[in-house]
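Allow me, if you will, to draw on your knowledge of protein folds for a short while. I have a record of one protein: its chain in single-letter code and its fold written as discrete structure tokens. I should value your view on which stretches of the chain appear to form regular backbone elements. Thank you for your consideration; the sequence and its tokens are set out here:
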Amino acid sequence: MESFIRDFRQSLRMFAQSPAFTLAAVAALTLGIGANTAIFSVVDAVLLKPVSMPDAERVVVFINTSPRGPGGPAASPAKFMHYRQQTDIVEDVSAFNTGVMNYTGGTFPEQLKSARVSADFLKLAGAPILLGRNFTPDEDQPQGPKVVVISRALWESRFNADPNAIGKSISLGNDPYTIVGVLNTFDFREYGPTPQVWTLFQFDPNTNDQGHYFQVMARLKPGVTVQQAYARMQASAANFRAKFPKSGIGPQGGFGVLTVRDALVRGDVKSSLYVYLSAVGFVLLIACANVANLLLVRATGRRREIAIRAAIGGSRARIIRQLLTESVVLSIAGGLFGLVLGWAGIRALLSINTAGLPRLGTDGVNVGLDWRVVAFTVAVSLGTGILFGLIPALQSSKTDLTTTLKESSGRSGTGFRQNKVRSVLVVVEVALAMVLLIGSALLIRTAMALGRIDPGFDTHNVLTMRMSLKGAQFDKSVAVDQLIHNGVDRLKAIPGVVEASATCCVPLQGGYGLPFRIVGRPLAADSQGPYHGGGGWATVSPGYFEVFRIPVKRGRTFTDRDTAAATKVVVINEAMAKQFWPKGDPLTDKLVIGKGVMREFEAESDRQIIGVVADTKAGGLDSDPQPQMWIPQAQVPDLANALNVGLTPIAWVVRTQVPPQSLSSQIQETVRQATGLPVTDVESMDSIVSTSISRQRFNMWVMTVFGACALLLAAIGIYGLMAYSVEQRTQEIGIRLALGAPLAQVRRMVIAQGMALSLIGVAIGLAAAFGLARLITAFLFGVTAKDPLVFSGVPLVLAAVAFVAVWLPARRASKVDPIIALRAE
């Protein structure tokens, strides 16, 4: 230990004597280690942090499967009952979803974050009961009592922490609910917004409903593995198909389970994180190469010092240990600054865009400096110090005492033959920078391509907002239609409002899907179930297509005459028309939508197709349009309407003549006065579109930052090598000039030598990029992994930067005074 302390003190003295070298080395390491710390903190939050649930590794989420692999976790009441029957592998099978409810017990209604669950969910999730009790199985039955468990925050704010709040009534959607329990502080953020009120689904045990609108969790029984449970659920699908032949599950479809962590973090998220880790690894390697080059340069000037150490008895191992101590001290300094830079940098980026990555929280609040991040930074710092310090230490410790002690200056070697190691390191830097720059250029092209996409609807000057209609008074379609009608009339009266409407499903924010039959058309022999196909399904009020300016290709859209008493109608998109009427006219046919899937659609009757509208990219800007159906809100079956408004708040959509933010307050107040209900989630359609491509933009910015760091470090590396080479060859250059060599020839000599290394690195990097680009194919849109523009433009940019880095030392070389150079020795 005493020896290490001496080495440490000696290292500090050496760095204090060379402030420029120390600053350059620490800056390079700060960039490299900081980038790694930033990405690892995201990986830590997404992949490594334990899930906030007791015994989380044994808690599983049920999923749907197909020949393509694991699917989504959406479940229906019939599937939930099927899952509950698998008592030999799971227990505490629990359904849940999140949403909002209107608290109507105050002066003005306000929206509360809510969750609907089955009776066992709070037990499964480990939610601590502060007061009262949990739900009981008897309460979770059809026509059971309306009971609610509330959060501690709501209990304190609405009931002043009254211990007698249990048994009191709270009005939710104008329905009275009896408070049976108060939850203590409970972290639910990973599964959705933390609810303020919890109510029960109250499913019918004999249901055959196939509507998918919630998720199901369970705990594995002791001794049962995830793999065993997955296999058992796959086998159970045959029984489900036999019991529910109209469920839409094909012969190859089935069920499975994933751990909660795997369900939260799907494959595309992991792929993104692995790409980030690879990229920051490249940045760190470039930083290591850069600092190694600096140490090699510095070691050349210390050859006499090292030789003297060896001459007075210092062993090679002792000298290597001293040099490695110096490099580790440098890396630890870079690690400390990198820890701060990385944490601050990633928090700043996530506050702008979290890319929809799970488990990060709002604005990346869950990303922090826990022990894993600190331990990672320490490990990277120590590993980096050894990595970049080992080669210089080994090189410097091989000293010829006689030759070195006879030298009169540090300029003991000239030319590139004596700088082979430094040259190789520069080539590696350039090659790695090339790979990162091509990756970032491909993602920039992807973001540009997405920005140019026509979504099929006009996003400008459109304001959206949500309103919860949970409650018995809105179970019937006529009540919802009348509320929307009143609101739309009031909105249209606002100066500057062009059109207004309401819908269940805003484009790019998800929606429903239902199967359909074409009336009078026979089913194909290979059809799966009694349906011709399936597509998106949405309820809208008149004016919806005008708000979004979706062109009508054939027929018409909805008007106020499409009431509940009028002929039932439906509008479809071109994708559906082309797929199911490739040579016919859909306006001559009728559809039956959703009938047989669930009881809520048993009242559904034939609907005349009255219009075909242009395709929209409602599912995502990077996906092809799928078949889509719209029906007027006034004609939604009452049971389907009750289910719809119980699951999803309706969305008001308003087109304005001016930027919608300028009318936002007036629009919100007008809707509140017209309906008596609050609105939330006020957002422009432009913002929704921007959010829909946040993952791609995040990928672009991350890779661009890494590419810029790599380019900067590579340029510094090239400049440093050439500047040192010119310094070492000052006497040679002086002789050349004294013998009459033109200044231009000297410049060309230095430039040619520097560019030769750069172009070798560019060529190697280009070849590597061709192979590695396919790893990010899944993140690309509108550009191929071997895009000619990128693979021709990026090498030119890197070569140009390298030329500038080489030209500066070459310019200095041409200004060498021959007389001064010849007197230098």
In short: The first helix runs from residue 2 to 17. Confidence is low (pLDDT under 50) at residues 408-418.
